[in-house]
């Protein structure tokens, strides 16, 4: 029977009715995939979707929506943020079919090939493991087990996307289950996402778990962040345009600068751990610069350090000494009209663009004079 706590209903394939409930969001997935997949790859994704929609035809989520919405949303997370290949997107669409419907792995192998079947099998096996993660050691063991059990790391990535969508829709579960899932997310899944260097998933998992585990603290931080939003957005825009001008002057091209607000859980951690008031936390916004080459990353760092004064002891060279997960980047914190933390992150894979990201924060009132 279904192990996905968010599912209700009959788990038989049923009579393959003509009126198969369709996902609300497949058009969105198709659109995202069409931006980076070939027509053949896209058609494999469509086939996986149609197959999964038939398998889950009689199932609904607790919210009452057709079950197929869930695998489609998981596939969207993997395609949109992470641009995963078509096998991963197909496996995401099919990830609950073996667990929750009469479909077998050999059906999947026959229709979609070995790789997709192995990915689905891996996800199914991870789903079968549950343990009490309130025990820190257990949580660590579980994380290790996840990594050891997955010959193909893409299995863990699918599982993370699966958990992310389940967390986004956690409100449909009874309160006791919500807390259990949120705890497990904080202790097992967010650290795994961190270990794999998938920060966008890590941040969202942490904030969702934070919301369910400490609703009052969450509300408080969210309100503080909301109140200072306008100032931070202005600061971020200013910093980005200064950087952009300076990089152009340095004859750098082919780069991307993006900014994001700092997520709530990490703000709260700083307030608690360092006993700081919200107004003392300056790096509330992050800016990332993506460069093409390693040497461009160092040039961009030079730009940042000439625009703003670096804070002592905050520079980290993860290019010379990459993190265990292969993450390579430059981090710095600088003081200026806005304070910034700067990162440049070339990936270990040389064919992919390298990345640089500074982090800017608000509270311009406390900013020291800019060093030009
Ligand atoms: Mn699932």
Stated plainly, the CATH topology of the largest domain is called Hypothetical protein af1432
Largest sheet: 6 strands, antiparallel
Number of domains: 2
CATH level-1 class of the largest domain: Mainly Alpha
What is shown here, in short?
Helix content is 53%, strand content 10%.
Detailed description of the structure:
The protein is an alpha+beta fold. It has 2 domains: 7-137 and 147-171, Hypothetical protein af1432; 224-366, Beta Polymerase, domain 2 (2-Layer Sandwich). Helix content is 53%, strand content 10%. The chain has 15 helices and 10 strands. It has helices spanning 26-34, 39-55, 69-80, 86-94, 97-100, 105-112, 114-128, 136-149, 153-168, 175-195, 199-213, 215-227, 229-249, 264-273, 294-307; strands at residues 7-9, 59-61, 256-261, 285-290, 309-310, 316-317, 330-335, 340-345, 355-356, 359-360. Strands 5, 6, 7, 8, 9 and 10 form a 6-stranded antiparallel β-sheet that branches. Strand 7 (330-335) and strand 8 (340-345) form a beta hairpin. Helix 3 packs antiparallel against helix 4 (86-94) and helix 12 packs across helix 14. It is globular. Manganese (II) ion is lined by residues 4, 70, 95-96, 162.
């Amino acid at each position: 029977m279904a192990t996905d706590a968010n599912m209700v209903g009959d788990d038989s394939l049923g009579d393959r009715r003509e009126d198969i409930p369709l996902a609300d969001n497949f058009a969105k997935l198709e659109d995202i995939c069409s931006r980076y997949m070939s027509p053949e790859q896209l058609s494999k994704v469509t086939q996986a979707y149609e197959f999964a929609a038939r398998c889950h035809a009689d199932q609904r989520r607790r919210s009452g929506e057709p079950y197929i919405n869930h695998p489609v949303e998981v596939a969207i997370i993997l395609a949109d943020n992470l641009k995963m290949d078509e096998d991963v997107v197909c496996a995401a669409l099919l990830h609950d079919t073996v667990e929750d419907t009469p479909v077998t792995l050999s059906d999947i192998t026959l229709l979609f090939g070995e790789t997709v079947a192995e990915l689905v099998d891996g996800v199914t096996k991870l789903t079968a493991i549950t343990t009490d993660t309130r025990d820190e050691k257990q949580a660590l063991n579980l994380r290790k087990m996840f990594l050891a059990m997955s010959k193909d790391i893409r299995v863990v990535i699918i599982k993370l996307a699966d958990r992310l969508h389940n967390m986004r829709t956690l409100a449909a579960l009874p309160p006791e289950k919500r807390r259990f899932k949120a705890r497990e997310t904080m202790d097992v899944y967010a650290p795994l996402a961190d270990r794999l260097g998938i920060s966008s998933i890590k941040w969202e998992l942490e904030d969702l778990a934070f919301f369910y585990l400490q609703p009052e603290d969450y509300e408080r931080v969210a309100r503080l962040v909301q109140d200072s939003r306008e100032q931070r957005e202005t600061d971020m825009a200013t910093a980005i345009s200064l950087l952009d001008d300076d990089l152009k002057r340095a004859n750098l091209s082919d780069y991307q600068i993006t900014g994001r607000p700092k997520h709530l859980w990490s703000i709260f951690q700083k307030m608690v751990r360092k006993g700081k008031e919200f107004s003392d936390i300056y790096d509330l916004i992050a800016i990332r610069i993506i460069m093409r080459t390693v040497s461009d990353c160092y040039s961009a760092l030079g730009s940042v350090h000439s625009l703003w004064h670096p804070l002592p002891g905050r520079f980290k060279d993860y290019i010379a000494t990459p993190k265990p997960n292969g993450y390579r980047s430059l981090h710095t914190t600088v003081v200026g009209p806005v304070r910034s933390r700067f990162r440049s992150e070339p990936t270990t894979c040389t064919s992919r663009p390298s990345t640089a990201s500074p982090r800017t924060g608000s509270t311009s009132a406390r900013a020291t004079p800019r060093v030009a």
